[in-house]
Each structure stands twice: as structure tokens, then as C-alpha cells.
Inverse folding.
């Protein structure tokens, strides 16, 4: 098997900025020159035209694209309030419109429930049911845009509805929509899963996106994530989706403060350059997963 059959590798622009603008153009160009297959960017409430314009630039570069998003308490899919859930549907449809304008094929992130919003109790069956109903509804909207939604399990300090692959798999089964799959993030799994191989096998039937994130959100390969277990198991399940580096810095102060990033982990270009080398070396080691 040649290396060209390996999973595509992307890099998340949140290392520089949450908003999309022309300032991201030279960054995308350099990521292309380094050897990335695509970029991932954050979807917020910017005008759709901003995403369309950036997508046109990425087309010129020959870069593919994925996106990431979060939802807040006013558009919480798991809310007991029908009006809030209705707002969640509208909010998610707006994100799909922006991703589609940019030419993205995936929207990932904790779209199943409000980020950093807690009920002070364990997740309830009706919360999973509410979230699944919203995701199923917007799954139809995503399908007509040829976009796959991949909800993400977060650690216990950022979310309570889905912390583990077992919980996420349960939600995806309840949602029961071909355009709503799942993602696996190594940073969150490092806190919540007992063993990476078991977690990956649990989510394997619906796995469609992977974030390659070091334990401290710095350069992949420089920390203590069980990378051999990760790449070996992804190869075993024949995973062929994106492997996207998600690392954080304090370049975008507002975004950094919102997710409690208080220090620099690594320079973003160190993360980009050495992270790609690391992923390529692990892909080659494990049958070009």
C-alpha cells in the first residue's frame, strides 16, 4: 500500500484565529506548502460571504476543508425547552449554510449540547432524546449540503452529556441518521477513557472524524498520549477519514480565554510542521492508516 492511500491530514486554524478573514490566506498557503491535505476552521456567526470567499481561496490552493463548532445555552439541543431546541435547529442549519458556502464536507464539535453548561446532575434519558431529535432533524439539512455532522465527546470540565465513546455511540444510535456520525478526540479521551483501543473500537461503527491532539494541546508526539495504541487501532478498524490536528495557543485572546487556554504550549508552526511529520511517521508505521 502506498502512502497516498493514507488518511488525509488537516490542521485546525484555531491555533491562529477563530474568525475567518483574509489574514488566514497566507497561513493556509503555508500549510499547503508544508504538505497538509486540508484545513479546519471554526464556524461562528460571520456572514456566509466570508466563508464563501475563503473557500474560493482554498479551491485555488487545492486544499480540502472541514469545520468545527460549538453551541451555547440559548441553542442547546439537549434543553428541556422546546423553544431552545428550535433555536438549536436554526443555529445548526446556519452553521451548515456557512460550511457549505466554504465547501466543507464535515462539521465536527460538541453540537449535541451547550458547551460548558452544566445541570448539576448526571445526563438524563430525555436529554439524550432531545439532542438526538435535533440532530436527526438537522441531519436531513446536512444531507442536502453533502455534509456529515460528527458530534464530539468532551471532557467532564467542558460537558456532561457526552464524555466517553460509549455515551457518544448511544447518542448516535438514538439519532439514527446517515449524515450524523461521530468523532474521536485524543485530548479528551486521555482524560475520560480507560483504554484507547477499547474506546476506538466502541465508536468504530460510526466513526467519521478524528482529532489528533496532544495531552497539553501542543505538538502531537511531544506528550504522553498513547499514540501507538491510537494509530494501531485506527488501522485495525480500517479508518479512512480525516486526521486533523487541533492545537491551541493564545494568538486569538478572546477564543483562548473562552476555553481556558492561559499559556503557550508550542509555537503554532512547530505544531504544524512537527505534527505533520509525526502523523506521517505513524501512518507509515501502521499500514498507512
Amino acid at each position: 500500500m502506498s502512502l497516498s492511500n493514507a488518511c488525509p491530514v488537516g490542521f485546525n486554524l484555531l491555533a491562529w484565529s477563530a474568525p475567518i478573514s483574509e489574514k488566514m490566506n497566507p497561513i493556509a498557503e503555508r500549510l499547503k506548502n508544508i504538505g497538509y491535505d486540508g484545513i479546519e476552521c471554526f464556524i461562528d456567526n460571520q456572514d456566509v460571504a466570508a466563508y464563501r470567499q475563503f473557500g474560493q481561496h482554498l479551491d485555488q490552493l487545492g486544499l480540502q476543508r472541514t469545520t468545527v463548532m460549538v453551541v451555547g445555552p440559548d441553542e442547546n439541543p439537549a434543553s428541556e425547552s422546546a423553544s431552545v431546541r428550535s433555536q438549536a435547529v436554526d443555529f445548526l442549519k446556519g452553521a451548515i449554510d456557512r460550511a457549505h458556502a466554504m465547501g466543507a464536507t464535515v462539521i465536527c464539535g460538541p453540537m449535541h449540547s451547550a458547551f460548558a453548561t452544566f445541570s448539576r446532575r448526571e445526563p438524563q434519558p430525555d436529554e439524550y432524546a432531545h439532542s438526538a431529535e435535533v440532530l436527526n432533524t438537522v441531519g436531513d439539512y446536512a444531507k442536502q449540503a453533502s455534509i456529515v455532522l460528527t458530534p464530539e465527546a468532551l471532557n467532564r470540565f467542558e460537558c456532561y452529556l457526552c464524555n466517553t465513546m460509549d455515551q457518544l455511540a448511544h447518542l448516535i444510535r438514538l439519532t439514527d441518521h446517515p449524515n450524523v456520525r461521530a468523532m474521536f478526540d485524543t485530548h479528551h479521551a486521555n482524560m475520560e477513557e480507560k483504554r484507547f483501543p477499547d474506546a476506538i473500537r466502541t465508536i468504530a461503527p460510526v466513526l467519521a472524524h478524528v482529532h489528533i491532539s496532544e495531552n497539553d494541546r501542543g505538538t502531537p508526539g511531544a506528550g504522553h498520549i498513547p499514540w501507538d495504541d491510537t494509530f494501531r487501532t485506527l488501522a485495525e478498524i480500517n479508518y479512512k477519514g480525516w486526521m486533523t490536528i487541533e492545537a491551541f495557543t493564545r494568538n486569538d485572546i478572546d477564543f483562548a480565554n473562552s476555553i481556558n487556554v492561559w499559556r503557550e504550549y508550542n509555537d503554532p508552526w512547530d505544531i504544524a510542521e512537527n505534527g505533520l511529520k509525526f502523523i506521517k511517521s505513524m501512518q507509515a508505521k501502521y499500514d498507512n492508516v
